Amino acid sequence: MKLYEIAEAIEKRVPKEWAEPWDNPGLLAGERGAEVEKIAVALDASPRTVARAAERGCGLLVTHHPIIFRPVKSVVDDCHAGRTLIAALKSGVALYAAHTNWDSSPEGVNFVLASELGLKNIEPLVPSQSGAWGLGAVGDLPRGVHFGSLGELLRERWNLSALSLYGNLKTCVRRVALGGGACMDFWPEALALGVQCFITADVSYHPREEAQEAGLCVAACDHGEMERVSLRALAALVAEQTGLPVTLLEGADADTEDGLGGR
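Predicted structure:
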């Protein structure tokens, strides 16, 4: 399957138009007419993930985070992006990213996180105005639990090694909001929807203090660990859309060689 055909197939399910205006999803490096037989999926493009994709015979690495955000003035090996792009071009591994368009997909990061947590009545925290599902998610636990117990549930369901809880651990939590990645700015929207706890990553001091003073418990995850929960769903989508074998390089199912896809 040609590289441009793979990009078109993915974008039928996760259109680039769903991305935030500042974002840069889509095909980032590679020859559009190149034939691709196998695909790898990871959270980030790096010299390491590019090498692992190449070792497995994958002509395309699909990631959540784009390696290029801003206009590139040079591609040299004195920075992470330059080293990654050089490694990709040398090894014949094309790069594609599905970022905030995957965040706001009805089957993307936030919906997967909410589903894995076992929330019911799942809705977007911030509904989209562009035809996507929206950013973040809000829903209800099957029953109320103490905030401390919710922390244990998060560690188990999302396979977290890093989690900080801010608030009274005995607070009863039933309604929960979350934002995959850096979404602390959305805590007022969460509060307005009557949640007792907001879960996100990259939580800074002052927004956290404001949220707690307003009555919210805050759970702060590692950014990467939180978003890796959705990688299997992304890999499955790529496999379904292309019919090609897909190797997941990170997450609970990492290195399941050709574990997804293939018609």
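Summary: The chain has a mean pLDDT of 94.
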